[in-house]
Amino acid sequence: MTFEDISIFLKPTSLSEQSYSDDSLGSKVSFFSGNHYEPTDFIETLVVIGVSEERGNPANLGTAEAPDKIREYLYALKTGGYERTILDLGNITAGFEKQDTYFAITKVVNYLLKSKAVLLVMGGSQDLTYPIYLAYEKLEQTVNLVSIDSRFDIGEIDSDTQSNNFLGKIVMHEPNYLFNYSNLAYQSYFVDQKSLELMQKLYFDIFRLGEIKEEIAQTEAILRNADIVSFDMSSIRFADAPGCLQSSPNGLNGEDACRISRYSGISDKLSVFGIFELNPKADNRNQTAFLAAEMAWYFLNGYFNRVSDYPIVDKSAYSLFTVPISDGKYTIEFYKSNKSDRWWMEVPYPSKPESKYERQYMIPCSYSDYQLACNDEIPDRWWKTYQKLH
User: Fold this and answer.
1) Secondary structure letter of residue 152 according to DSSP
2) Interior angle at CA 121, CA 136 and CA 112, nearest 5
3) DSSP string of 226-289?
4) CB 3.0-4.6 Å disulfide test: which of 21, 118, 264, 287 passes with 229?
């Protein structure tokens, strides 16, 4: 597949015709206008894509106009001090049928992921997370998905894909490449008991709004393990983000949203960050679009400040802490980066039949997980991962 094969789905944004001051983010953007690109042009490149598709959420029609509205505010912000160029490929326009748009998204995202790009995707409705996930399936790559949402979006599996059931579609899709799902900031009065039990049965990580608000920094380790982050703007309280027809009085505030966005960007693993459900038609004085632009700015800031310290092979730059638990029944090895002070822990899992050695799976964690282990308590995220691997 070549770039020409996906360029038919891309429409340049009209904002490319505007002039930007030298100190604005817009001056650092290279806009697609029918250009030809090779796969090597996308290696470690931050690519911006809008998706003008809203039919996945009939209750919030108007989100198709969000991508260019976010760009309007985003590119007027200051550069943040980094010099690398951002590539804006414009918008994927809505197809004749919603499935046509899904097909285009999967094709475009798959090509860019193969080319080692990192994507900022601006929707559109949140069901667009589903075709983004399918792009990873084409790579035969396991996926960790984090959704910032007040609801779980499991919905009716047998009905058409919508914003309220896209997660259920992902969980039930075959072949399934979803390894872990994490929900941040769900609100208990929007979630039924059956859905909670399903999350626990699948060993997924779920965190109530109150837990997140109490210690927002705990989300960093969760986001550091994500391949895809899907941010539903209606998870932000109405006072901060009125431009969502499904927002509620309670939720994250604007500062929380920006911190989560930066944590997403700084993750060495993450390759797609999506902002969804912004409805310019309902937005009071474009307040929500402005906030979404600031979130995107913080994501970019995190991305351009990545430190590449994931301990894959060479662990010499890490401090090792070995903690036995339950009288030696389990032993957890923690690694602390000497570069960033971030923590990881190893989870053992069975080897293949032809191998006599046990293998290790590395997951991000926090200092508090290490403290729990030192108190002879198994960290929750270690135990859930252990159960899924065995």
Assistant:
1) -
2) 45
3) -SEEEEEGGGB-TTT--S-TT--SSSB-HHHHHHHHHHHHH-SS--EEEEE---GGG-GGGHHH
4) 264
Alpha carbon of 360 to those of 16, 236, 379: distances in Å? Answer: 47, 37, 17
DSSP-H helix ranges across 75-205: 98-114, 129-138, 166-172, 193-201
Tokens of 210: 């109150």
Measure CA 377 to chain center: 30
Q: Which residues pair with 182 in a beta bridge?
A: 146, 205
The C-alpha atoms of residue 72 and residue 282 are separated, in whole angstroms, by 17
β pairing state of 330-337 and 318-325:
antiparallel
Strand partners, 144: 180
Token pair of 298, please? 């913080």
Nearest to 52 by CA among 11, 110, 112, 80: 11
Task: Say how far apart CA 69 and CA 366 lie, in whole Å.
Answer: 37
The chain-wide mean pLDDT, for the chain, equals 93
Q: Assign 3-class secondary structure to 190-201.
A: HCCHHHHHHHHH
- What is the pLDDT at residue 355? 41
Condensed to tens digits (0 to 9), the pLDDT of residues 177-217 reads: 999 999 999 999 999 999 999 999 999 999 999 999 999 99
pTM exceeds 0.85 for this model: yes
Distance CA 346, CA 203 (A): 17
Q: Which residues partner with 283 through β-bridges?
A: none
- CB-based burial of residue 348 (10 Å sphere; 0-12 exposed, 13-18 middle, 19+ buried)? middle
Q: What's the maximum distance between 2 C-alpha atoms anywhere in the chain?
A: 67
Q: What is the pLDDT of residues 266-305, one digit of tens each?
A: 999 999 999 999 999 999 899 999 999 999 999 999 999 9
Q: Could you tell me the pLDDT band of residue 359, with boundaries at 50, 70 and 90?
A: low
Kindly state the DSSP code that residue 188 receives in the 8-state scheme: G
The candidate with the shortest Cα–Cα distance to 206, out of 247, 157, 154, is: 154
What percent of the chain is helix, strand and coil (3-state, nearest 5)? Answer: 40, 25, 40
Alpha helix positions (H), 23-97? 66-74
